[in-house]
Protein 1
Amino acid sequence: MKREAEIKPASSGGGVVSNTVKSHAGDPVVIKKAEEAKAFFKKAGFPKGKLSTFNHDTRG
Amino acid sequence: MNLERYPYLSSRDYLDYEFYSEGSKGKIKKLVVYEKINDEPLVYNLAFGDEDPENGILLDNVKSSNDDRDTILATVAYTIGDFSDHYGRPMIHIVGSTIVRTRLYQMSISKIYDEICAVYTVQGYRDGAWEFFQKNANYEAFVVQKN
């Protein structure tokens, strides 16, 4: 899958940006894991999202 | 979040991270890679492992046994923060390369959960359903999302 092109500005972070860090998007393990994850979500579905946006009240 | 971690480097697009594990087996280069797997909802997969010293590619089946698993996991957790801040705080899928490794991830998450739950929402998948992370449950996979 195409990698995300639009990068949002930094708001925090602990890592140091370096030109020496190369992309591993094409590594066989990365591709395999992504394909396995897609297959997993097809089976499992997606979780509902963050706790702060999850409605715990089921009483209607 | 205030956890012991290794210093780490990020690629300019914040999708690739690297750091060195330091322990009884010496210095071992670790890689964390985020790859988009779904648009709506926005989900990325986290791939993690050692760098192959021969060709530089990611290996996820190496048992390095450097006696620093918690520090490594904390470092990975910090990369999630960096990545999330740049990519709209998507869901991040995490699963080990084996059931045993997924279990080890779970144990490490449990250890630092009180620290990370203020920053991240963690959900786990078990018995055919997603639920919010519980320390004593066994999960097949995890989804982490920055709050």
Note: Chain B has one domain: 8-146.
Protein 2
Amino acid sequence: MARISSTADNIRVLPMRAGRSGAGPRPWRRAAALRRGLLFMLVMVQTGVGTWVFTAVLPYHGRSATEIGLITAFTLLLAWIITGLWTAVFGFVLQGRGGDPHSLLRRHPPEQLNAAPPVRTAVVMPLYHEPVQRSLAGLRTIYESVADLGCIDRFDFFILSDSRDPEVWLAEQAAWQQLCQELDAFGRIHYRRRSVHLRHKSGNIGDFLRRWGAGYAYFMVVDADSIVSGNSLVRMVNLMEREPQVGILQTAPSVVRARSAFARFHQFASRAYGAVFANGLAALQLGEAAYWGHNALIRTAPFMRLCGLRNLPAFGLFRGPISSHDFVEAAYMGRGGYEVWLEPGLAGSYEEYPPTLIDDLARDRRWTKGNLQHLWLLVCARGLRPAHRLVFLYGVMAYFASPLWLLFLALSAVEVMRFTLWPINYFPNDYSLFPIWPHWHPDWAIGLASSVMVLLFLPKLLAVIDLIRRGEAHGFGGTRKLVHSAILESLVSMLLAPVRMLKHTRFVIEALSNVSLRWAGQNRSEETEWRPALLHHAPATVLAVAWAGFAFWLKPLYFVWSLPITLTLIASVPVSVLLSRVSLGERLARRGLTLIPEEHAPPPILKRLDELEANAAMLQNNFEEAVIDPQLNALHGALARRRTRAVDRRLLHLRRRCLHQGPQRLSTAERALLARDAESLSWLHRAVWRSSPESPWGRLLELHRRRRDIPRFADGALDARTRGPAAVLSAG
Amino acid sequence: MMSRLYELTLERVVDYLTRCGLEVTPATLERVLQVIKQAARHGETGLLSRVMDDLPNHFDLQHAPLHRPSPPLNRRSMGYG
């Protein structure tokens, strides 16, 4: 094993703005300028042509306020769609040429990378009310994968909990100890729970950096549902060692392990189309890419120096902590002279997808607020690179496109109403001597709508062609199944698009009105039941029915045009429920649809994760176990707060209440208070084991004993040898 | 009635010892019964408490060594460029 030099020696910090004032412009900058210039030109020309055709399609050719609104919305949306299209085209072309010659990975042959000196790296997993067994199983697979390479000495692992519910964090603590025992990894896998929860995930990582960051040259953030293979991790560290100007190296994680139909469709889309999009994005961003918040390796020292996030100073949404920290941190790294790279060529990086539409939308709700906050930084932050400002804009448009689309639909309705309900206005402009004859070209409109559909689906088609030409279709069940899956996925995405439009519009309005959001862990396994689906999607359904009725009353042809949107909204409740079903996902997989290469030939790290999850015992009643179990009580007591002052009366009262009334009568906050206090845990443990069988804790002890299958002597389980002395005792 | 109390006490103690990681063999049971017997001499009231209090004197109830959950602090501050 190679000796690891002291960590401080390995933390090399570039001088501020090293990228700019260093050894002249780097070659990728020229390529980036050329590519972005080409993209800009293509988008402008194509959008210009599309807008011109659209203006010609409109009856007054843009001479009324409604039409100006329509043209504006159409232009922005078209530019957005075309940007996506050309990003995919860039990826398609580069994939065809065997990859991007400017990518980091192509700069160093493997032997040069392997010769990089060993440095200390931390793998950190921030948790907030996540499924404990799954999260720690993920961390364990990374640990084992690194250990298999013989490099474990260079890595430390940190579980950084922000969980507030004692049921969750007590389970985390127990699982941490078990993990360390099983891997003999005490001193290498660490657990830290913050008692003060500031700034969500970025605050949690900041807390880690302040305490221990100085000991590590690099750190990688993995989410509760993401994993990275040891090979990838070590390769990234070696790459960063060879490229000291790189501040963040982001992988493009593949979505895996989807079970519900909803998640399977997204998994397929991510895996089938992801390569083309990610390669296109990487080719355009080069050293000014974004950080996605996880599965990225970060150079610790510059990150600590440059990426502290101040609260936004303005008003409403633009006041307070930054919710979506990752884009901002990448921009600050860029501002400090460091490069941020997206490397889609780094395999072995995986994440999971929310299992249901409702969960996906809940995540979008948080992201909408975070991304819209970036508007402030886009305009007001000083010294950011233009490319990173564009990344902010890209993030804003990801959600702002929805209200634009809704506006477009609403103005279209107004336009139809004008021609149906009111007499034709030949003088839409004031002070005009000449009448304007409205021209309506339905054939042009159909042509334009078809062109937009082609623009929307062409990237997917390119991605499928790319997979077939690279001989990767067999991983998706063969060419025929790949095509069928892509068609099915496209239909499902069309089905969900109007639902997302309405929801995202709502999220944008909420964000702009600064409605506060609850920060929550993600549901990663449950299906959607009918009642929550109804509550969630009923407003959209009612709106769609009303809209359809109105459209039919207004003009039957308009009703027909509206059907793709109204029908999907009306069906949103059953669609949401059905897509959340695991059984439907399994049926798709059995028929060879939505398959991905990782299912066809699972990588060892995913196989191991499946194994670990299959064997994981359910952790439940963790507060009760923390009080009852002597080993766990000692563990939780050791990790709990040790008071320096005398115990207060409230805590004493709470202990007694817990003992006499049982834990169920206490609120979550009250249980948390007791579980945080070492003395209370010990006091309760002692008292509970001495409690009478009829008391609440006595009954709980009996219940837990039965669960553990310890024999009851009264049931005749006492063997002949001990029955004798027991009988003696009974007899006094 | 008395028989039930002893049975419950025995069950409780065996459960506790199992949770402490001790293997409950017939010999262990013999010792447990001795502890209960001794405690029973002082009457039924508080039998369970007396037995539980006396257990550490008869069994090695030491827990697995507890490890530090996190490394020693190495504090640095964040920069707010």
Note: Residues 2-58 of chain B form one domain.
